[in-house]
Amino acid sequence: MKAAPRSVRALAAVVVRALAEEGVEAVLTGGAVVSLYTNNAYESKDLDFVCAAGRERVERAMASIGFRREGRSFVREGIPFTVEFPTGPLALGEHVGVRPAGRLRVGATLIRLLSPAQCVMDRLAWFFHNRDRQCLDQAVAVASSQAVSLDAIRRWARGENDEEGWTVFLEALKRS
Question: Which of the four CATH numbers 3.30.420, 3.40.50, 2.40.50, 3.30.460 does domain 8-113 have?
């Protein structure tokens, strides 16, 4: 890696390329996706990738771009972001084995990520199950800045069994 990436988008592309060199496919999830969809209205300081590869291949890929493991994160001097690999499979709340619908091209690199609607679902899952208000705010920010189907999100939300949380989301979305 020549210069240190200074944005979520640039670092995601570097990580995806390094993982691909090791034969690893990964999906970008979490707050980094919120950052991308809101033009950094919410700025994540970590990138979460879900992948089905063994730890050794992931560690080789990350070492090849100068990252070292520090606890559950990978860090590199001079880069303001950490990279994490939460345990899969990819899930949106209670819905496991989700197929990512988002794609982002950075130069020649194709990054697989949650679609805007899936990103809203991901953030709402954290709000519904943990009452994480920051995740509620992130869900509202994405839903306000991207074209998403509230009907599709509502159908998903029914499976999460949190009518009160859904109502809080809708009220916050109206205020935004």
Answer: 3.30.460
